[in-house]
Amino acid sequence: MKFHNMNEDEVEKALNTDFSKGLTEEEVKKRRKQFGYNELEEGEKQSALLLFFSQFKDFMVLVLLAATLISGLLGEYIDSIAIIAIVIINGFLGFFQERKAEKSLDALKELSAPQVQVLRDGHWDKIPSKEVLVGDVIKFSSGDRIGADVRLIESHSLEIEESALTGESMPVQKATDALQAADLGIGDLENMAFMGTMVTRGSGVGVVVAIGMKTAMGQIADLLQKAETMETPLQRRLEQLGKILIVVALLLTVLVVGVGVLQGHDLYTMFLAGVSLAVAAIPEGLPAIVTVALSLGVQRMIRKNAIVRKLPAVETLGCASVICSDKTGTMTQNKMTVTHLWSGGKTWTVDGVGYEPHGNFYLRNDLIDPKKDKALQQLLMFGMLCNHAEVFQKNNDFLVDGDPTEGALLIAAMKAGYSRAALPGQFEIVKEFPFDSSRKMMSIIVKDHHGRTFVVTKGAPDVLLGVSEALLWEERQQYLTKELQGTIQTAIHDLASQALRTIAIAYKPVQANTMILHEAEAEKGLTFIGLQGMIDPPRPEVKTAVKECKQAGIKTVMITGDHVITAKAIAGQLGILSKNSKVLGGKAVSEMSVGQLEEVVDDVSVFARVSPEHKLKIVKALQNRGHIVAMTGDGVNDAPAIKAADIGIAMGITGTDVAKEASALVLLDDNFATIKAAIKEGRNIYENIRKFIRYLLASNVGEILVMLFAMLLALPLPLVPIQILWVNLVTDGLPAMALGLDQPEDDVMKRHPRSPKEGVFSRGLGWKVISRGFLIGAATLAAFMIAYGQQPDDLAYAQTVAFATLVMAQLIHVFDCRSEKSVFARNPFGNKYLVWAVISSLILMFIVIYYPPLQPIFHTVPIIAIDWILIAGLSAIPTFLLAGTFLVSKTR
Ligand code: ATP
C-alpha cells in the first residue's frame, strides 16, 4: 500500500513515528545514518585544479610565458625561471582570491537556506530543511515552501501551488483523507504535499515520507535550480572597462616597444620588457578583488544580521533613497501585551510583567474578578479560542510560540484564569479560516459541549465593525445603530491614540452541521463583542537609525496594516513623522492610480491600514519619482513588491520562504536598524572598491609612463622585466586587498545617496588616477635620471633606485587612496591591515635589493642611505604635492 492509500494510523505505524510528539533525539540520530540529509545533488563544480589553471588562460600571460620560454631556450635561465616563478605566484594569489570569493558565496547560500518547522520530542522547532528526516512531523503555512515529500495529517484551508512539478499554476486544495486509487499522478494526490511546492493559502501539518533525491523533485533532476550568476552592475562595468584598459595598455606597450626599438634598444629586450609591462599594467585581477571585497563586505553584513542573497544588492544598498519598512516587529519589538479591554462602554485595564501569565484586571482603577463580567469573559475566552499561539517556560522566562498578537490574547485570557488545557472538553473547533493580511481577520467555527455551534472571528476592529450587525452591550444583544457604531469608533480611536494595537472579537451562532465553505459566509452578520488593545513598544535603536538615515539623505516610510491612529502615534515616537509629512490610509491608496499616488508620495511618511497588495503601487510611485526604494515584507502577498523594489528585504524570523526568495536582503533579526547598518556597509563597500580601483590604476599608469618617458627621452630601460613584474606582485596584491577592508570614512552616512548611474570614474576618480599616476611615473623617472647621471656606467644601480622609488611611491600613495578628500583627511595608519600589507611589501622590496642571492635574479645592487633620502623625497611627491592643495584650501 502507498502512503496516500493509508489512513493516518497506518501511516504513523508504517513510518514508526508519533504524530503527537514527533521523532525523538535518539531516533533522529538513528535515522540520520539510515537516510542521510535532505539534499538535492548539485551539478559538478569547477575543480580546484581547473580553477588554478584558469588563472593562466589570460592572453598576455600566455604571451609572457611563451616569451620567457624562448629566452630560456636562448640561455637566459635565471630570468626565465624567475619570471615563471612570479607568474605562478601571481596565479596562486588569483586562485586563492577566487576560491575565497567562491567559498563565501557558498556560505551565503547556506545561510539563506530554507528552514522547516518540525515537531521533535514534543516541541515545535525550526531547523534547516537539510536536516529533515523521514518520519518527521512538519508544519507549514501560507508562503512556505514544502521542505520534503509529506503525507498530510492536518489541513486548514490548505492550498498548494505545484507548478514546479506539474506545470499547473493554479493552486490545488489539499485534504487528509486516505485515497482509494493506487496509481495517481502528482496533481491528484490531494493528501500529499511535495518538496519545492509552495503553500499559497491556509496551513497544514504532514509527516515526511521522502527526503532528498528520493522526493518527486529529486527524481526530475533537470529541474534543479541552477545557481544564479551574481554579477553586480559595477562588476559588469569593470569588465567593459577592463576590455578598454587592455587595449589602452597594449597600445601604450606597443608604443613603448616601438619607441625603444627606434631609439636603438634591441628588439628582444624590448619585446620581453613590453610583454612584462603589459602583464603588469593590465588589471586582470581587478574583477576577482572586487568579488573578494564584495564578499568580505557581505560577511561583515552577516555579523550585523543582514544576509545578502543577491550580490548586486550590495551596490544598490548604497544608492537607496527611501526605505519603506513594516512597522510590527521591524520598528517595534513585536512583544505584545494586552493592557486595555473594551466592551459595552466599559474599559478595563490589565497589569503584569512581560509574557508572564499573571496579572490583575481593573475597572476604573478598582480590582475586579474578570470571570464575573460576561462580556469580558467572552472577549477573553474567544480571544484564546481563535488562536494558535502557545506560551511556554524556558529558564524561568515565559515565551510565546506563534503570532505575538495571538500570544498577547492568550496571555490576557490566562491572566483571567482561563487555560487552553481545559478547552478540549468544552469546545471543538470544526473549521478554521486562517488570518491573512488582506482580510485582516481570522475565524473559526466551533461547537461547545452543549452542541451549540458558532463562528468566532477576531481581526482589525474597523474591518470587523463593517461585517457586524449587532453589538453585545451589558450582556444583551443590540442592533448596531449608527450611534452605537460611533461609540465603538470612539473606543477604537481612544485605544489607538495611545499607540495600542487593537483587535476586535465578534461571533455569531450558526445551525449545527451547516456547511460553511467560504470565509465570506462566516464573516458576515456578526455580533461585535469588544476590543483588546495591546502595547508593542518601539525598538529602542530605531529612533536613532531613522535619524541617521535622514542625515544620509534617506527617507523612512512606515507601511503597516495597523490602524491609522496607532501607526501615527508610533511614527511620531520614532521621529518618522515630520511637520509636513502625511499619513495615507489603505483606502485612499486603493482609490488612487499609480500616477495620482506619484503626485503625493513624496509627502507621505506613513501608510496605514494598507494591504500587502498596496505595497507594489507604493514602490512603483516612488520609483517613478526617481527614488531607489528598499522595501521590507514577510508574507506571500509582499513578494511582488519585494521583487519590484530596488532592494527587496525579507524578514529572517517572521518571513515566509516566498518573501525570502523574492528578496535581495534578509534581516536575521527583523530589525529596522539592521537595514541602516546594511546601507552603511553597502556604501562603504562601494567606496572601498573605488579606493583600490584608484590605487591599482594609478600604479599601472605610473608603471607605463615611466617606461614610455624613458624611451621618448632615449634613455636606457629604467626597469627590467622582472622588476616590473615584481612591483606588480608586491604592490598590487596585499595593499589593494587591505584597501578593500578599510573602515568607512566618518561621513559615509552624512553624504547623499549615490546615483546608480554613476560611472566608475565619477566624482573626480579619473582625474585622481591620471594625476597621481603621472606623478608616480615622473618621480620614478626623475630618480632614475639622477642616479644614472651620477653613475652612467652602473645601469643596475640606476634601475635599483628607480625600482625602489616606484615601489615606495605606490606604497605611500596607497594611504592617499583611503580618503576621497586627502591623505590628511583621516589618520593614515587607521587601517591596520593596510599598515601590515605595506610593511610586508617594504620588507619584500628590501629582500630583493639586499639579499645577495636574489640580486642577480632581480638585477639589483645594494644602495646606500643617501640614495634612500633621494628615493623617499621623490616617492613622497605624488601623494603630498596634491594633498598639499587640500591643506591650503582647508586653512583658507
Ligand atoms: P505591519 O505591516 O507593520 O507588519 P501589521 O502586522 O499590523 O503591520 P497585519 O499583520 O496585516 O499588519 O495586521 C493588520 C491588522 O490585522 C492588525 O492591526 C490587527 O488588527 C489584525 N490582526 C493582526 N494579526 C491578527 C491575527 N492573528 N488574527 C486576527 N487579526 C489580526
Automatic annotation (TrEMBL):
InterPro entries: ATPase_P-typ_cation-transptr_C, ATPase_P-typ_cation-transptr_N, ATPase_P-typ_cyto_dom_N, ATPase_P-typ_P_site, ATPase_P-typ_TM_dom_sf, ATPase_P-typ_transduc_dom_A_sf, ATPase_P-type_domA, Cation_transp_ATPase_P-type
Residues of the Cation-transporting P-type ATPase N-terminal domain: 2-76
Protein's cellular compartments: Cell membrane
Signal peptide (UniProt feature, chain positions): none
Record has Metal-binding as a keyword: yes
Top-level taxon of the source organism: Bacteria
Protein name listed in UniProt: P-type Ca(2+) transporter
A Gene Ontology molecular function term of the record: P-type calcium transporter activity
Keyword Lipid metabolism: no
Reactions catalysed, as given in the entry: Ca(2+)(in) + ATP + H2O = Ca(2+)(out) + ADP + phosphate + H(+)
Cellular-component GO terms for this entry: plasma membrane
Residue ranges of the TM segments: 48-71, 77-96, 244-262, 268-294, 692-714, 720-741, 769-789, 795-812, 833-851, 863-888
Keywords on record: ATP-binding, Calcium, Calcium transport, Cell membrane, Ion transport, Magnesium, Membrane, Metal-binding, Nucleotide-binding, Phosphoprotein, Translocase, Transmembrane, Transmembrane helix, Transport
EC number: 7.2.2.10
NCBIfam families in the record: ATPase_P-type (TIGR01494)
Pfam family for this entry, one: Cation_ATPase
Topology relative to the membrane: Multi-pass membrane protein
Family per similarity comment: Belongs to the cation transport ATPase (P-type) (TC 3.A.3) family. Type IIA subfamily.
One GO-annotated biological process of the protein: export from cell
Main location: membrane
